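ok here's the first one, seq then struct tokens
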Amino acid sequence: MIPEPGPGEAAEKKAHGELAQHAFETAGKLRLLAEHMRAMGWRTDEYAAEDLERVADSLGGMSIRAAMSSDNADIVSMVMGKPMKRIAPNFHVGLGDGQAEA
């Protein structure tokens, strides 16, 4: 059985999950913005589409690290783009096709 975190640790893990979710969503919005800018041939005064994509990539990586430290399988699944199962603190494995979470 996996031990549950104490109250202070639980609040920190929840905050990590919220950070992961916000970073993941923001990265997606930046990628979409960069795609639209590229399609229209636009750039801001200081940023090109490629600059925004680099920031989105960085946020995507951070969202994975924050999700893993949240110990929330739903958030880890969201940022990884596939079903994940928590098997130990800060450790998740992907569920293959046709596998259900036990």
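and now the second one, same deal
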Amino acid sequence: MRQARNCWPALVKKASDDVTQIQTELAAAVARVEQLQASHQRLCRLYDEYRIKEQQTQTEVMGMQASMNQRQFMAQLLNLQHRVVLDISKAEALVTSLRKKRLLAEMELQKMRALEEQDLQAVRRDQEKYEQRQMDELGVRQFNLRMQG
């Protein structure tokens, strides 16, 4: 008589663990994108504040050194904004990649569950056939005993 294979529960658990791990990585990547976007917004606000400040002070007399320092700082802010935008692009690409990876892992999990269920059904069918054969043999024996007696 056939037994259920021990490999299917282990394979289902492994596939489930993979899905969980990818979901954890995906959550961290999404949080990273949100953090970078918040940083980008702060940099944009800071740059706008300094730009407005520069426009207001141009009507007033500002020292040459102070003016150069402010422009240099604004250039550094623009450079930081550009780097943050690149980081956001990379982080969003990672999120997209992890979503695809999660989808594949979920499909693999469903496949393992289906294979486990198919194996259990095959074992049940085999058990039912075995029991039916036993019943048939018992019925034939009883018939033969009645005919002899």
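notes on #2: Helices lie at 7-59, 64-148. The radius of gyration is 35 Å.
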